[in-house]
Amino acid sequence: MSNSSNIKQVAPPAGYAGEGFFATKLSEVVGLARANSMWPLPFATSCCGIEYMATMAATYDIGRFGSERMSFSPRQADMLLVMGTIAKKMAPILRQVYEQMAEPRWVIAVGACASTGGIFDTYSVLQGIDKVIPVDVYVPGCPPRPEQILDGILELQNIVKNESVRRRSSDEYKDLLNSYNIK
Amino acid sequence: MSLTNELITQVLSKYHTPNVENFHVEHDMLAFEVKKDASFEVIKFLKEDAEMDFNFLTDVCGVHYPDYDKDRQFCVVYHLHNWLENVRIRIKVFLPADKPEIESVVSLYAGANWQERETYDFYGIVFKNHPQLKRILNMDEMESFPLRKEFPLEDQGRTDKDDRFFGRTGPNC
Amino acid sequence: MSDLLLVPEKRFEKQIEETRKKDGVELSILNLGPTHPATHGIFQNILLMDGEKIIDGEGTVGYIHRAFEKIAENRPFYQVNVLTDRLNYCSSPINNTGWWMTVEKALGIEIPKRVQYMRVIIMELARIADHIICSSVMGVDTGALTGFLYVMQYREKIYEIYEEICGARLTTNMGRIGGFERDWNETVWRKIDEFLEEFPAVWTEFENMLARNRIFMDRTIGAGAIDAKKAMSYGFTGPNLRAAGVDYDIRVATPYCSYEDFEFDIPVGQNGDCYDRFCVRNAEVWESLKIIRQALDKMPEEGGFHADVPDYYLPPKEDVYNNMEALIYHFKIVMGEIPVPSTEVYHAVEGGNGELGFYLITNGSRVPYRLHFRRPCFIYYQAFNEIVKGRSLSDAIITLSSMNVIAGELDA
After folding, report:
1. In Å, how far are A20, B158, C27, C400 from C51, measured between CA atoms?
2. Among A58, A181, B82, C53, which has the minimal tally of Cβ within 10 Å of its Cβ?
3. Reported pTM
4. For position B169, what pLDDT does the model report?
5. SS3 for B60?
6. Mean pLDDT calculated for residue range C282-311
7. CATH number for A166
8. Does residue A82 fall inside a structural domain?
């Protein structure tokens, strides 16, 4: 069996503990729960998708960060990982998939092509997915190493952990969605 | 008798002049031009003749030569391959700029279907009697033909890239 | 206007109306949309279904059209190499080497034997990497996830070898005109030796898990079968054609890069169905391991790592700073004043999916005048809708993954 004495445990959020109860802020508990169980929707279009397959496989295991279950249905996913070039023909479909996701939802743009169009500065390629959907984390690279993709996911986990529970109903967020014409 | 470039040249010249011309060998591959109205006939001959037997269509593509004469602006290039004798040839068919039309070879080689659609998508060359000639790689609503030399590479409406920083201030390659 | 020019949904709606009136049978349209876990890559298939059976279908591609051929008309030869990486990105070194061989053919450059053997090793490693993905993903599509996780670890070993050679894992941008950009150090040779020692046991275990597995065989035998004549007419090449029974392999038919010095067999199937494609790819991995072993044993000591072509190959930096000639060559290569003849050349290599051809027209400038990629995926994917007609939906899914359609090569 494994040596279970040196397992690193996640530190509990700041709060007041007593006999049989633990009092802390709601946003911290919600953030902790959300951050450590992000279910990804791998929207893999090209080469970055193969690096994601390597991230998903045993050597760089993304499951240990809570993303054990890949969801291909937008309704059941938390984070949309857009990996690869998005052509203009594909943009409406990306938009549809994003709109089908339920709140709270986050987007990571993996790779140079998803961030800004990458090396494909052409008439048929969308120069960055932030032209059609709001993006939370950009992971540059062509393709980014699996460690970089994991770094991006950990960065997102940090954002998720510290997000206010009121964010999705705030005016700022509504303005952001309106600027993309997303209802 | 093995199939050499000289034999192909001889046989084609015998049966198909004046439609075939300009035979030359480039990097061991025989290349020649065929007049556009005879392209289907010549390719059918090359496929079905027992001696020629070019059973495999490797590739169909288009080229745009804006600097050539008005009736030689577009070119459809066929690469055929005879597997038994292991001989490849290249057939070039020049088309005029105002009406680039050519007979489709889908009835001879089923693999030409999407390749001709791609050539139509990129250059606007119309393949007559093609079962489904519509755009394949670009968006269906696109009106222009992007691989023509006058069409620019970059999306002219993009706002986030400043051409000066990429050195794109005119022809600089 | 012919019906076939309509969007497939409209065309199928007409057919649904007709069948409803004639037979009372209600057909349905299924959108195997661009984003789907089964389509490894983005391409769409609209299927007309009678329950589970597929009556008709039409594929739409172009969802990742990045206009490689247009970009290539504006980039010098060494920058086009970056585009070739992203064609069949599971086996980038084959695309890179194919491109360099095309350019060297156009420029008339001879490559030393040692460099050719090094290129053969790297191409065969890439072929193994490509077939690992295709076979293990076929397992995933039938529900066997373990095989995928197990062999992907060895794919990481291949990536480590690429990293030592060129610095990148996936999109390698490997090689230059005339050879490689740096010599291979001892780590590379050691890692290749280790790979050749450890991988056969792993691959045997993977094959044993699936190849005689009753469930896998029932799923794949008979699905997506194509006969040899139809396959040739559709322009099939590579493992898909060899599974149909035709033993055409460019490495043997028109040997390039010293392949004639190596002894290997061409595995051939019988029915052209998914099971045959799976078995052919597995057998090809064994042949590739054989070729790499022979290349390592016969590797010449002399020859360096690049051809002696100062006109095209950048001189080492110490020479550029100390030697006038090297400085001038460096300047000319970077500014693009290299001697390029006006010529047309077509060169084909045996890629992971078949005959990957490069048709290059040069006109004296340092950018190609026209570059066309003969992409095997694009050409054989046309046949997909015909070979799944009359089969069930699950057969269509396994056929799609067995044909190894890589979206980057499909759309370019």
Report:
1. 57, 46, 7, 20
2. A181
3. 0.94
4. 66
5. strand
6. 93
7. 3.40.50.12280
8. yes
d(CA C22, CA B4): 58
Q: Indicate whether C327 belongs to any domain.
A: no
Q: From CA C167, how far away is CA A36, in angstroms rounded?
A: 33
pLDDT digits (tens, 9 = 90+) for A118-176: 899 899 999 999 999 999 999 999 999 999 999 999 999 999 998 888 888 899 999 99
Chain A residues interacting with chain B (CB cutoff of 8 angstroms): 88-89, 116, 121-125, 127-128
What residue ranges define each of the domains in chain B, with the CATH number in brackets? 5-110 (3.30.460.80)
DSSP state of A145: P
Put simply, whether C79 touches B (Cβ < 8 Å) is no
Q: Closest chain B residue to C367 measured between Cα atoms?
A: B173
In a domain, C26, yes or no: yes
The per-residue pLDDT of chain A, averaged, comes to 90
**A102 and B135 Cβ atoms separated by less than 8 Å:** no
Q: Determine the pLDDT at residue B173.
A: 45
Whether residue C373 contacts residue C380, with contact meaning beta carbons closer than 8 Å, is answered with no
Residues C82 and C166 in one domain: yes
Instruction: Determine the pLDDT at residue A92.
Output: 92
CA distance to partner chain A, nearest, from residue B113 (Å) = 22
Contacts of C62 (CB under 8 A, 6+ apart): A87, A89, B135, B136, B137, B138, B139, C411
Q: Considering the domain boundaries, does residue C326 fall inside one?
A: no
| CA angle, C360 then C110 then C314, to 5° | 80
Torsion-angle region of C65 (φ positive above 0: left; ψ -120 to 50: alpha; else: beta): beta
The enclosing domain of C152 has a CATH number of: 1.10.645.10
The secondary structure of chain C, three-state, reads CCHHHCCHHHHHHHHHHHHHHHHCCCCEEEEECCCCCCCCCCCEEEEEEECCEEEEEEEECCCCCCCHHHHHCCCCHHHHHHHHHCCCHHHHHHHHHHHHHHHHHHHCCCCCHHHHHHHHHHHHHHHHHHHHHHHHHHHHHCCCHHHHHHHHHHHHHHHHHHHHHHCCCCCCCCCECCECCCCCCHHHHHHHHHHHHHHHHHHHHHHHHHCCCHHHHHHHCCCCCCCHHHHHHCCCCCHHHHHCCCCCCHHHHCCCCCHHHCCCCCCCCCCCCHHHHHHHHHHHHHHHHHHHHHHHHHCCCCCCCECCCCCCCCCCHHHHHHCHHHHHHHHHHHHCCCCCCCCEEEEEEECCCCEEEEEEECCCCCCCCEEEEECHHHHHHCCHHHHCCCCEHHHHHHHHHHCCCCHHHHHC
Residue C173 has pLDDT above 50, yes or no: yes
Q: Which residues of C touch A119 (CB under 8 A)?
A: 82-83
C348 inside 8 A of chain B by CB: yes
Chains sharing 3 or more CB pairs under 8 A with chain C: A, B
Task: Determine, for residues C361 and B86 on separate chains, whether the beta-carbon distance falls below 8 Å.
Answer: no
Burial class (CB in 10 A: 0-12, 13-18, 19+), C358: buried
> Taking 80 as the threshold, does the pLDDT of residue C213 lie above it?
yes
Q: Residue B171 pLDDT > 70, yes or no? A: no
Inter-chain touch A127–B166, beta carbons under 8 Å:
no
When pLDDT is cut at 50, 70 and 90, the band that residue B3 belongs to is confident
ipTM of the complex: 0.93
Predicted local distance difference test score (pLDDT) of residue B80: 94
pLDDT tens, position by position, C335-382? 888 899 999 999 999 999 999 999 999 998 889 999 999 999 999 999
Q: What is the pLDDT of residues B57-102, one digit of tens each?
A: 999 999 999 999 998 999 999 999 999 989 999 999 999 999 999 9
- Residue C374 belongs to a domain: yes
Question: Based on the structure, what is the number of domains in chain A?
Answer: 1
